[in-house]
Write a structure and sequence with these properties.
alpha+beta, 7 helices
């Protein structure tokens, strides 16, 4: 299976991950979830694997701009609904390796798992 990198092309961390993959000869597909969206089943799988607290990017401007009512009483279901409505709230990048995913980019983790 060819890994798929999910993210937003202008995100600096996504750019670093894409450069790392290319430099290390890792063929991959890129899915821009800001343009193409993300399906509920896939997103729920990421949340099941990593927890909504890891997948939801609460540090980003999109989340911080939400009304307080949307930011309170968060749980997995509410977090998934928020991320489906605004995919830029998904922490990035997400690297789908088929049997598992990596959230975020750390060169040493990529090297241990991908290369």
């Amino acid at each position: 299976m060819t890994p798929t990198l999910y993210g937003i092309p202008h995100c600096d961390t996504v750019k670093k991950a894409r450069v790392w993959l290319a430099t290390h000869g890792v063929a991959h597909e890129f899915h821009d979830y800001k343009k193409a969206g993300i399906d509920r089943t896939r997103l729920e799988g990421w949340v099941a694997e990593h927890g909504w607290e890891t997948v939801l990017n609460r540090a980003g401007t999109t989340f911080r701009a939400l009304p307080d009512a949307d930011k309170t009483a968060l749980d997995a279901a509410k977090a998934v609904d928020l991320m489906l409505a605004q995919p830029s709230m998904i922490k990035r990048p997400v690297l789908d390796l088929g049997g598992r995913t990596l959230i975020g980019f750390k060169p040493d983790v990529y090297a241990a798992v991908v290369a």
